[in-house]
Design goal:
Layout (H helix, E strand, L loop, with lengths): L4 H17 L2 E3 L2 E3 L4 H12 L9 H22 L3 H15 L2 E7 L2 E7 L5 H17 L7 E3 L8 E3 L12 H17 L6
Antiparallel strand pairs: 1-2, 3-4, 5-6
Length: 192
């Protein structure tokens, strides 16, 4: 499964922001809201932005709100409620003023989405909202999902060829497989 590389990158950033900034559970452990003092470094790690794009506290706060809305979108997709996902994405598009723009990369032009201003927070949120709109409005919405492991609600972007991913990480997948194996060992064989 391949998305256009820019869309794929923006969706990967979205997944990172949702998983790092929203509370819930990851692999059986509670995930707490990020402390204000750690918000900028956490957002910067997800963005992978270079020094020329310094993330401010206002940018990080904008992307925290974006992550919270994105979690709602992905949970709606997982529940099969594309209408609710679309309503939330449309709100994000309006709030960020997402607009298409052709940007030159190397010798070619790529379609990117920009926000109502050039700040890091609005820019990434607008690009993310547009990427979510593209995936919700396509037959690929199920490529965004919520981990099926017990006591885990982290999200993932399924880039596999066959679209079979159901776990947020190899750790969750291994945890579930190990638990199933232990259950099989404890179950006595059936007698005829």
């Amino acid at each position: 499964m391949k998305f256009e590389s820019h869309i794929e990158r923006v969706l990967q950033v979205t997944v990172c922001l949702v998983n790092r900034l929203t509370p819930g559970h990851s692999g059986g452990r509670e995930v707490f809201p990020v402390a204000t003092s750690n918000l900028v470094p956490t957002v910067t790690q997800c963005l992978g932005v270079s020094v020329q794009f310094a993330c401010t506290e206002a940018d990080a706060a904008q992307l925290l709100q974006y992550a919270q809305s994105s979690r709602i979108v992905i949970q709606s997709i997982e529940a099969g409620d594309l209408e609710s996902a679309a309503v939330t994405v449309n709100r994000l598009l309006r709030e960020t003023g997402a607009r298409p723009q052709l940007d030159q990369h190397g010798s070619g032009w790529n379609l990117h989405f920009h926000g109502q201003d050039d700040s890091v927070g609005i820019g990434w949120a607008a690009g993310g909202a547009a990427a979510l709109a593209l995936i919700v409005g396509s037959d690929r919405a199920e490529r965004l999902g919520v981990c099926v492991a017990p006591v885990c609600d982290r999200v993932y972007l399924d880039m596999s060829k066959n679209g079979s991913r159901t776990f947020c990480s190899k750790a969750c997948q291994s945890r579930v497989k190990a638990a199933a194996h232990r259950r099989r060992l404890k179950t006595p064989p059936a007698t005829l």
